UniProtKB/TrEMBL annotation:
Protein name stated in the entry: T-cell surface glycoprotein CD3 epsilon chain
Chain residue ranges for the region called Disordered: 103-135
Organism name: Probosciger aterrimus (Palm cockatoo)
Location of this chain's protein in the cell: Cell membrane
Keywords: Cell membrane, Immunity, Immunoglobulin domain, Membrane, Receptor, Signal, Transmembrane, Transmembrane helix
Amino acid sequence: VEISGTTVTITCPLTEDSITWQSSGTKGVSEAQKYIIENHDSSPVSVSCSSGAKTYEMYLNAKVCANCAELDALAVTGIISADLLITFGVLILVYYFSKDRKGRASAGAGSRPRGQKMQRPPPVPNPDYEPIRKGQREVYAGLESRGF
C-alpha cells in the first residue's frame, strides 16, 4: 500500500498477468498488479485481487489528507536534534551573560552612582505610634480598653 496525498495505490502479491480487482465502496482504476484509488475519503474499504483460484482479501483503513507532508525517521531525528542544540546554546548564552552582569552596577534611569556606603538615618517616627517609655504613661492614660 502506497499513500500519496489522497491517492492510495494497492499492489497485489500475485504475479500473474490477468488479475481481477473487486472493491466494496470506492471505485478505482486497475493496472495489472496495482489498484489505484484517487480522492480517497479515509473510509474503510475491502479490496480483493484474484487470479484463477488464488484470491487475496485486503482491508484498507488508511487516513489520507491533501495537505500532509511525509517525513522519514532521519528528518524527524534531525529536527529534534537541531531543536535541542539550539535550546542548549541559548541556555548557555543566557547563563554566561547573566553571570557577568552580577558584579556590574546597572546604568538604568533609576540608578545613581554608588560611593561609600552611607548609613541611612532611622525613619522619622510617626507621632501617632510612639513607643511607651518609662515616665510617660500619662500620655496614654486617657486610652482605655474598650469592650467589643
